[in-house]
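Supplementary material to the annual report.
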Amino acid sequence: MILSALLTSVGINLGICFLFFTLYSILRKQPINARLYAPRLVAERKLKDTGFNLERLLPSAGWVKRAWELSEDDLLESSGLDGVVFMRIITFSLKVFSIAALIGMAILLPVNFTGSQLKIDISDLPNKSLDAFSISNVNNGSNRLWIHFCAIYTFTAAVCCLLYYEYKYLSLKRIDYFYASQPQPRQFTVLVRSIPTVSGQRLDESVEHFFREYHPSTYISHTIVRRTNKLQQLTEVPAAFVYFKSRFGAAIALHMQQGINPTKWITEEAPEPDDVYWPFFSTSYLGRWICKLGMLVGTFLLTVLFFLPVLVVQSLTHLEQLERYFPFLKNILRLTVVSQVITGYLPSLILQLFLSFIPPIMKTMSSIQGYISTSEIQKSACSKMIRFTTWNVFFANVLSGSALYGFDLILEPKKVPLLLAQGVPAQATFFISYVVTSGWTSLSSELFQLMALVFSYIKRIFSGKESDDLVVPSIPYEKEIPKILSLGLLGITYFFLAPLILPFILVYFCMGYLIFRNQLLNVYAPKFEMSGKYWPIVHNSTIFSLVLMHIIAMGIFVLKELPLASTLSAPLPVLTLLFNEYCRQRFLPIFTTFATECLVAKDKKEQDNPRMAEFLDKLVDAYKDPALKPKVNDNNNDDNRLTSPLLRSGEIRV
Amino acid sequence: MILSALLTSVGINLGICFLFFTLYSILRKQPINARLYAPRLVAERKLKDTGFNLERLLPSAGWVKRAWELSEDDLLESSGLDGVVFMRIITFSLKVFSIAALIGMAILLPVNFTGSQLKIDISDLPNKSLDAFSISNVNNGSNRLWIHFCAIYTFTAAVCCLLYYEYKYLSLKRIDYFYASQPQPRQFTVLVRSIPTVSGQRLDESVEHFFREYHPSTYISHTIVRRTNKLQQLTEVPAAFVYFKSRFGAAIALHMQQGINPTKWITEEAPEPDDVYWPFFSTSYLGRWICKLGMLVGTFLLTVLFFLPVLVVQSLTHLEQLERYFPFLKNILRLTVVSQVITGYLPSLILQLFLSFIPPIMKTMSSIQGYISTSEIQKSACSKMIRFTTWNVFFANVLSGSALYGFDLILEPKKVPLLLAQGVPAQATFFISYVVTSGWTSLSSELFQLMALVFSYIKRIFSGKESDDLVVPSIPYEKEIPKILSLGLLGITYFFLAPLILPFILVYFCMGYLIFRNQLLNVYAPKFEMSGKYWPIVHNSTIFSLVLMHIIAMGIFVLKELPLASTLSAPLPVLTLLFNEYCRQRFLPIFTTFATECLVAKDKKEQDNPRMAEFLDKLVDAYKDPALKPKVNDNNNDDNRLTSPLLRSGEIRV
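Predicted assembly:
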């Protein structure tokens, strides 16, 4: 891809962004669109109708100001810890790429540009690729490469520092959030699976007997999970929600192996009551196992088969190939505008389109895989998407040029650094275009909600009125976090190779900062609370990007005939992984469970509260399959959830 | 190595074995050797002096009869569960190799021998290698190879069945053993490390405060670990043994994260009081980390550098090379006897000699690595030794012929099956000789204790009398288990390649069965109780051997031009690993911890026992650094341990 094609792509996307922003700032002020652009405010009845005035028809940036002014405490109050973590992922990336852009643009870019390896004629720059700005232009064996070497060390140290302080800050936040939380049923409940059936004893009696015997001082009661089978009869599921008097009591049952046979009496953390994914309880143990295995294979196949669209995308960036395959298009393709659109804008757009089908598929796969809560399904889909995007956006595009596809990488790991060092720099311009399309435009359409807008107009035209059910969405983490992390991956790996990508990424995160704060204020309401469990995923992903950068650097220094720098880079991945290991020991346990110290302190604080007895009374009714509840209850439930997202049925205020 | 050289080696070893057996059966009856051949009986004062009679001077097999008649219950009584597990490793191997020998000798050997691939002249067999009996002799592409294919499937299924029943049997035994055990201090104790120091509070007060606050109903007391520093002063070690009223109470503190900061208040299982490895408490947290890392690197280097002696050994088996390097030896080397001893017996003997230096080194390394009990040090040294032997006995010998040494294996994993398929069959005769030397002779010298006998005679001659301190040894697991497993590895991998090795291995295990039972009766007394924790190591090791066999088989079938059989073998390692995963979930937790069900049942059974109060009173004095105890106590301690190994100071009978 040449410079002018890239500029075409940037131009198109910039145009779309401005259009969307302008339309949004007008349309959002029309009351008719309130359910689309501020469903949360509508549900919370916070929207005031100011009557018609002329200002409504003019674009304005008032929403930017409100989004800017939102404090972290307000965010915590309105969107929970997960909302805060989500915004901190963006601010963390902003910090990382500010440092990267500073080093990259001020130091590395001039060094690259003043090299003479590629013998690029400056006057003909628009028709050349952007390699003049990349490390490829530095002369082989030049001592200037030591500047890149130092930059890599400095940047790694800076990112690790940021990672450490972020992990520490969020750990403390998570504990504070726990101390400040109202009692929730899931804190006092444990899900027990694989309850052994004793002949002559009902399941109910087995559970009662077991917990009365082994947890006499903390056990309160339990609810056996019941499902209707295909004949509409209630059936014998060997799982139960068991309730305890204290959080510590529930944690003991959770963390200790219960039965002598480790495959029986398996205890798991209970999700919030309306977070339970009931359908999965119908599956047997063997069924669960097969489902899990099947879905692992399925995810793998999906990831591999996605190579085909990537190939199509990559063939578009090489116009000559296209001409050869479709000779009748030759005349059209020779038009400058057409060729620039095809090589510059189209590839990223097509990739973007194909990618948009994947998150729902991954979510379905995770739900079959055997998670018992929708929040866990979402988290698992998010992890799957990260692996998918890393492989298919980064590796597939980088390696599609070389003869061997991914499998050989696993079979011949010693070729990896050199292969990456050859493939990665060549894709710099494509990825800049990808950042603009996948980043900028998708952000502005997130704000503008183009598809939803069109659908709502069509609906209104045909049915004449809006439907009554207002749906307040929650952030689609499984879509947004992988996208943010994939741009982070590109930014980190290209930091020293082609620093020209950094300003584009920085703009993305600046826009994201404002747009997502606005969306959290007006659109998204938290459905379930994960209490910040997404952060460790982001941390690991960043470490992966760093190590990948180190491996590429080692390869590049060999290619650029400075093997000493390659050798001296070797301690970097080792040190980074040691740092990661330290973080894993120091912080990760805080994100997976709560310590005795926390649990007992919280229990003690509340033991004298007279309303705890009332809470514990209500607790035994908390976990009921909604399909088995009377219809009226069901509606109440939904209403609750919509009116105040942090006052859901799952939480009972004391 | 040719057949006649192998026969020389077998002959030499057989001779040594007979000599040792005969000498042992005479010498063991002399009262002067009682401390050497029956130290355990001496310590337990079970040895009767029958006075002199002529029978004493004649070899007899009475000890064989007594060893044969020993029942498992007697063994459990006298040697604990670890003794039983050790003997079951041998009986398990006996079962495995009986099946292997049956299939191998009755079916595979005739098939191999009637092949004509190698065009071996039967009349000149003594001067040929043993390849006529190996799979190499089966014609390429022959359908007879399907017999090998079926044999592999059958054998794998049989071994997995045996593994399953063994794991199940030992799981039940472990639980029974726990139920039948006397209360032991370690069951009621938890070791707490990394106690945070609060200014103005003594360590003692911190611990007291923490456990009174968070475990008020089960905490009894604690002992701060104190060490003398180089100035002979008592110092501020931030570790303590904390005592609880019940096993369940201790288990809760053990399995739950205690402090909010996961790197503080770290709880670990307490070892038995006289199993504690005190010196290690002096090391700081950072020191421990560096030690651990250093020892990992150390083990790796030791394993790699050991390639040098292996190279020497392998060069001996190729006589021509030796002649080239040392031309002046040519005449001697041409003598048939000399050449046969050098190529047949010497290589295994040298390898054996070098190998015997390794276990003490590994034990030292494990003790530096940071385990707090001598039994854990021994277990870790055992695991290290298994990896070491697998690499240096098996892989190094197999690959020394090929151009690339181990590292390339990791870097180019797709070459592994073919490389092994080429290398492994070629070493069949060397490994038969290794089995005879490392197996048979070392077993008989285990019985005869040659070195100890010589030393005791020298000592007696120079000092005029025996020393007073009688040392009853315990089984050197870190030496014996890796040896048994390495022979198991050879047997499993060579089962279908060169079945001629199987009778030699079977003889080894038959001898081992008798000799080790005899040694457990007369020589070894258990020092510490691991309650069968060695079994999972053996299980994993056997699974590894099976999968290695499958990989070699896949390579061999390709080499023998029957690629379909190679493809159809691919499910085997997958199925084996799935089986292993099932066992890991079903049985492994039983070997790492005890379930709530066990602990509470055991606690309840004893709660009405009036002597429990007395036990709990004594408990607080159980953990004291012997270096800080008055000298008199120390002696008592040792006496206790020697007189009755299962009635050690660590156990207080109720």
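The beta strands of chain A are 189-193, 219-228, 234-244, 266-269.
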